[in-house]
Input
Amino acid sequence: GEETKQETDVTLTGSHILEYAQQVMDGSLPPQDEYGRPNPKPNDSFERENLIEHMEKCSESYILRSDPRRFLSQMQLFEKVSGSDNISVSTEYSYLDENNDEHYWVDIALANTLPHYALEQTTKLLFLHSFDVMRAHLDNVSDGDNGTITLLRMLVTPVNGARGDEATFNLLQQELKRCKWLSDSTMELVFEKQPWLGVRRGEIITAMAAIMHPIMSKLNAIAFSKGNILETITKDRYINHAASIADLFLDRFNPKGPLSDEELEAKSKELLSIIDNEVEDTSAQALLTKMIDIVKHTLRTNIYMNNRYALGLRLDPMIMSSEDEEPREVPYGVIMVHGRRFDGYHTRFRDIARGGMRLVTPASPEQYALESAHQYEECYGLAFAQQLKNKDIPEGGSKAVVLIDNIGMSKTGKDFVMRKSVKAFTDTILDLIVDTEETREEVVDFVGKKEVLYLGPDEQVTPEDINWVIKRAQQRGYDTPAAFMSSKPRAGINHKEYGVTSEGVNVYLDVALRHVLNIDPKQDSFTIKITGGPDGDVAGNELKILSREYGDNAKVVGIADGTGCVEDPNGLAWDELLRLVNDNLPIDQFNPSKLGEGGAIHTVDTEEGVKARNSMHNRVQADAFIPAGGRPNTINIHNYKHFLNTDGSPSAPLIVEGANLFVTDEARQLLFEEAGVVIVKDSSANKCGVITSSYEICAAMMLSEEEFTENKDKIVSEVLNKLHNYAQ
Output
């Protein structure tokens, strides 16, 4: 199944399949074959033309060795998942065994998965359910623009007293569907450490461990590291208590008979009493108690949805507060999503809210651990900043932060995991907000009202992601799918293409240069340093605008991004900067021959290069600094003095925050008080992106895609004019 597909005449290699399909369609086959298996029923897919089209996607060896009945059966599984990222499973008794042993065929179609991973996880799960694999076939079939579908067929037999009854296979089918989307921690727990738990309970336990990390690490970062939390609650001494809490969660949201508030309270008290009597370790007791709190603060979940991509919990935001925390505004709602290689939060401050989705991909395990501890705080801070900048539009502020583990992967592997994470995260949010027959039957609701939220693109989200999300929202029955995510490449106003955020940033820069530094940028020379690469949205477009508006008056003396930094005290060559912007290239691709005297390039493939990149925004002297990329809290109360020179003067007297939360509130105040640094806050400086998204969504609600596209130039022009007015 792994060989490269070659051109071949499928009418010859697949003649046996075409002949069999013709018999199916003309009704000449008996209801059952010689082994008593039901023959397929006529289906439009089995028409000769459709069948040939499908076979042309298949490898020659797959066609040649396939039994016709099996091929048509797998074709139907293929069609069930085509165009999606779903999994379809079927099981059937095998009549081919001469020893009369109990054998079964398990057929699986998995869209967009790694074949070796599909085989590995399926065999693990079969072993967990006491099935031996006697034979296996694996084939990959193209699904066009959607990717590839892996077809897996396994001959299995029950061992150790297991039974191949309907209940066993129903459970097996459910868990096979889940395997593709399970986190590594869940699989290790249910396949290796505590196999008696079952997949569903294991997934609940690992999700709760992920939720507890940002809460409990505030109390003790070492004792409550992510690894320590999971290790503690899954120890043999405590796993029974964790399993009981998972059962409480399942009972609370069982669509066949959910626990009432009174029943939940009674069962919670009973569990707390048992934990108090049997668990002496204070850390373990605190974690198990917090797990019960999570159950009580969960208002909606997709745990019982059979085709879900990840586990989602709509939480009462109060659960995310720790005891020692200073009082602050409580969000309207929080959604946590726990999936394969990612955990994500969506936080919003109003019932109807708008904000971007960003992907965070740490480069090392140490950095990943730090990001995990701060993930919710970052999401909260970004959502709160969004709430402030949404003052000019009707929607409240929100933000989604998806933390992805693709450490050590190739560039292709990293991209694969990021795209899968976007799909799983957004589809899980749809599980919790759409009102369909499926969700009414399988999702127990304690929110008590319909929820509306809108997403937008942020760091590392691609146009392909946006298109998939919109299409999926339509498939899932979201009321206004075109409005679910903004910045659509065709029927939207793409932020990067039109530079809408940077247009606003530059208006603030222009005004501040004139009124704070007494520089007329149209007449006078001035210097700028920027974080964010020329291939980025805000930084790249800001470079284009600086060149367009001010020409050689604007001297960019330093730029840093994820690949390194380039510095030149006399200003970097504009032709080279614009080449990088137009070719969508990062700063490490800057041509060294374009540097002036005193210029330098530092790349992150050396330790010195990393240090230079990380300190560029502090070291390089400029009139203004535009953070147009970079991690939140980069300048904070502990390191803000690094932005100052030895005489106490700032390395730049003006900061215009194109990136969110680059400077903390405390550092912002101290830089102003101690060095007179004037800072244009992010909630004003970069608000034009979300304003554009709001206008785009209003248009999407009133116009068809064709009408929007026909009038797009006029709509964009009017929106850009409004942005300049809002920013002034």
